[in-house]
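Interim report, section 4.2 (structural modelling).
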Amino acid sequence: MIDSNFRKALIEVVGKENFDDTNTEKLVYSYDATPGFQAMPDAVIAPRSTEEITEIVKLCNDYKVPIVPRGSGTNLCAGTCPLEGGVVLLFKHLNNILEIDEENLTVTVQPGVITSSLIEAVEEKGFFYPPDPSSMKISTIGGNINENSGGLRGLKYGVTADYVLGLQLVLPNGETIRTGGKLAKDVAGYDLTRLMVGSEGTLAIITEATLKLIPKPNDTKTLLAIFDRMEDAAETVSAIISNKIIPSTLEFLDNLTLNVVEDYAKVGLPTDVEAVLLIEQDGHQNVVEEDIASISEICSSNKAVSVHVAETKEEAEKLRTARRSALSALARLKPTTILEDATVPRSEIPKMVRSINDIAQKYNVNICTFGHAGDGNLHPTCLTDGRDREEMQRVEAAFEEIFKKAIELGGTITGEHGVGVMKAQYLGLKVGASGLDIMKSIKTAIDPHHIMNPGKVFSKESMMKEVVNNDNT
Amino acid sequence: MTTPEEKQKIQEAFHQRVDDDELLNCMRCGFCLPKCPTYIESGYKESHSPRGRIALMKAVSDGLIEPDEDVERSLELCLGCRACEPVCPSGVPYGHLLEEVRDIINQNKKFPFKTRVLRKIVFDHVFPHHHRIKTLTNLLSYYQSTGMQNIMHKTGVLNMFPDTLATMEKVLPQAPNKKKMNKRETIMTPVNTKKKRVAFFTGCLMDSLFRETNDATLELLKIAGCEIVIPDQQVCCGALHGHSGEKERARDLAKKNIKAFEALNVDYILTNAGGCGAFLSDYDHLLKEDEEWSGRAKKLSNKIIDFSSILVALDFHQNHLFLHQQVITYQDSCHLRNVLGIKDAPRRLIKAIDHITFQEMKDADTCCGSAGIYNITESEMSMKILDKKMINTKATHATTIVTSNPGCLLQMKLGVEREGMADKVRIVHLADLLLEAYQPN
Ligand SMILES: Cc1cc2nc3c(=O)[nH]c(=O)nc-3n(C[C@H](O)[C@H](O)[C@H](O)COP(=O)(O)OP(=O)(O)OC[C@H]3O[C@@H](n4cnc5c(N)ncnc54)[C@H](O)[C@@H]3O)c2cc1C
Ligand code: SF4
Ligand code: SF4
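Predicted structure of the assembly:
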C-alpha cells in the first residue's frame, strides 16, 4: 500500500486519468514476457512529459518508493516485474518521433516509440536503423536501449548500443541531464551514454534518445542452406566469417525448431534435417551477388545437402518471417517456454552447440536451439511445464551448466536479453566479485536509495549487503 | 453490481471451466497488442489488450484477484474480433477463452431487470425463430414504405434515441416485405453443367433484411455450376448467443443445424456472412464435450466454406465481369479473415472486374467496430474505431466499399453517413457487386 499523501501528490502531477491503482490495472502490469515471474505494483502511472517524470521521480525519491520503468513489457529477464511493488511508469504518451535530421543522419525520439514505427519512418526517407529484435512490432526504443537489444542484423550492423548517440535522462534525484549528442566523435569525460545503454532501468529514466542512422542498403539477397548434421552447419558459420565475409544475417535453426516453425509459418522449410542456416547479405548489387555466390560455395564445401537462394522478395520475406517467429512458434509445444541467450565467441559455436545437446540429454530436458549464430548468440530454448516442480529443477540445473560452459568458452550468460531478475544470481559468474563491486558502487552512486527498478541486475541479497555497508561508512 | 456470492461463484467457475493449459500457453510476448483495436483506441491500456485480458482470466482462475467490475469491463469492451489470433505465435485460442468466460459471467450474474428482459426477447424469442425475424423485417418494410419513417424523421422522435441507434435507423436497407421473403425452392439447379453439389446456409439477417444479397449469392453459385440444396429446417447459427454468454442456447441451435445439414449429400456448406461461417466452423469446439454430438459437429464444421472460395475454385472470375470505371476497396470481415482465414478470394474476385481500380485500404483487416451488437452496447468505443476506419477509407478515394458480412455492411454505411459521404460512397456486399458486374455471354 502506498502512502495516501504520496498517492495524492502523484495524481496532482499526472491527472486522475493517468494514474491507476485498481486491482485490474495493477494486475496487467504485474508481468512481462518472462515465464514464472509476477508481482503486483502499487500503482501505474503514465506521465505526459519529461517535467512530469521529474516530479514523479522526486516524489518517489522522497517517499522511497520503487519506480519500474516499462516500455511494452516484452523483455525476457523479468526486467519489468515489480518485485518490490512501487509504481510502474509507462511511456505511452511519450511516443513521438521528434526529428529526422537528414544532414547529421540522426533521428531523435521519445522512449515510447515502437521500434518498427521508427524503422518504417526512417526507411521512408531512405535511411536505415538496423537493430531489429524479433519483437520490434511491439517493443519500444526505451526498452531496446535499456536492454541493449540486438536483432537479425546484429552480426554486420551491431546492436542498439552502436546507434545511441545521445540521451536525455531523469536521474533518481530528479535532475535532468543530457549525454552525448548528434556527434560522431565525443570524448568529453566518461561515456555516460554507453553506461545507460543496457542499464535495465536501474540507473535513470530515459526521456529522449538521439540515434544514428545510416544510408539504406539498396540490395538484399537471402539464402537457405540445409545440413544433415548440426555440426556441419555450425562449422559453416565459422568458415564464412574466416573467409572474411560478414553477412548481414546469419541465423541458425535446429531440427526441432525447424519442425515447429514450419508447422506455424508454413514456408516450406525441410523438417527432416538437423539444421538450417538462413543467410543474408545486403549492400551494392554486385557485392551482394559476389558474396552470396561465395557463401553458397562455402556451404556446399561444408557438406550442405542443399543451398537455395530466394528468387523473389516475397520468398525472402517468408524465410525471414519464419526465423522471426521461431521462439514464439516453440511456445506452442509446451505450456512454458524458457528462452536463454548464452553467447560465445563465434569460433566456439560448434563446441557450444554440442555441449547444449549433451547437457540437455544429461538432465533429460527438452531444449531446442536457434539463434543469431553469426554473432555467437544462441537461444537454447527449453520447452517445459512450469507446474512440474521436479522438471523445473532439472531445467534450472541444465541452464546453470550451460551458462558455465559459455563462460568457460570465453562467452557470457546473456547476449541481448539482459540480466534482470532471471540471471541476477549468475552475474558474478561472468563479471567476478570485483566486477560486481564496481557495478554496485556505480548503481549506489547514481541511485543511493535504490528506487530505480530494485531487484534487477543484482540479486537481492547481495544488494542488501551493499546498502548496509554503505550506511556504515 | 456483482455481489460477493456471485463473485465467488464466478471465480470457481473460472477455475473449473477455463482451460488452464491455454491460459498458460500465452507467453505474454505482446505480439497481439498492435493488432488489437481496443488496446489502441483505449490509449494503449494493457487491460484492454488481449495479453491483459488473458492475464486477467488467469488471475481470476488462480484466485489472485476477484472478478470485480473492472475485470468485467475489460472483457465487455473486447470486440471479439479475434484479430489477436492469427498473429499469436503460441496459437492461443483467444475467441474460445472469451466465449467461455462470458458465458460464466452471464450464467452467474443477475442482470438488472431491463437487461434481462431484453436478453430474453432477443436470445429466446427472436433469433432462434426464422419466421419471427421475417415478421420483424416485414414490419420494418411497412415502416419504411408507408411514410412512417418520414414522419419519424420530421417530428424528431428519433432524437430521443441514442445517436448511434438513430443513425443506424437511417442506414438500414430497404427491407423486403413478406411477399418477397416467400419460401424459395429447396433445390436449385446450375445454369449450365453441374460441377458441384453444395448446401447453402441462409442466415437469419441475411435471409430477411438482406434477402437480395442471398438471392444474388445463389444466382452466382448457379452460374458457377453449383447445384444448391437449401434445407428448410436450418436455424440461426447461434453466433450472437455464443458471443454474448449464452452458450447453452447456442448449442441448441447448433444441434438443430447439424440435424438439418448432416443428411444432405454435399461436399460443402456455403455461407455468405463471415460471422455465421466462422461460428458454424467452430461448432466442433462448441460441442466438444458432448459425446453424442462432437463427431457430428466436426463433420459439419469441416464442410463450412465461404461462397467466395467456391467461386474462385470454380473459376467464376474467368467470366466476363465489367463495371463502369470506379475505385473499389474491400473491408475484411473479421471472422471471415481471422477465423476462416479467407482474405485472398474476395480480393481476387473484385480484381477480376474490368475497368475498375482496386485500392487496398490501410488496415483493411482491422475491425470496423460493428462486432454483432457491440456498436449499440459499446457505441463510444465502436465509433472511435469507426472514425479511424473512415480515415483509412477516405484515403483510398474509393466510391465503392465491398464487405462480406451484414454487420460490417451496416457499420460501414453508418460510418459513411456520419461523414456525410452517403451520396458519394456506396457500400455493397461482395455477392451484389459480382452479380452487378457479371456479363452473360
Ligand atoms: C517473442 C520475443 C522475441 C524477442 N526477440 C528479441 C530479439 O531478437 N533480440 C533482443 O535483443 N530481444 C528480444 N526480445 C526481448 C525484448 O523484446 C527486448 O528486450 C525489448 O527491447 C524490450 O522492449 P520493451 O519495450 O518491451 O521493454 P520492457 O520489457 O518494457 O523493458 C525492458 C527494460 O527497459 C527498462 N525501460 C524501458 N523503458 C525505459 C525508459 N524509458 N527508461 C529507463 N528504463 C526503461 C525497463 O525497466 C526494463 O528493465 C524478445 C522478446 C520476445 C517476447
Ligand atoms: S500473441 Fe499470443 S502468446 Fe503473445 S501475448 Fe498475445 S495471446 Fe499471449
Ligand atoms: S478479440 Fe479483438 S478486441 Fe478482443 S482482445 Fe482480440 S483483438 Fe482485441
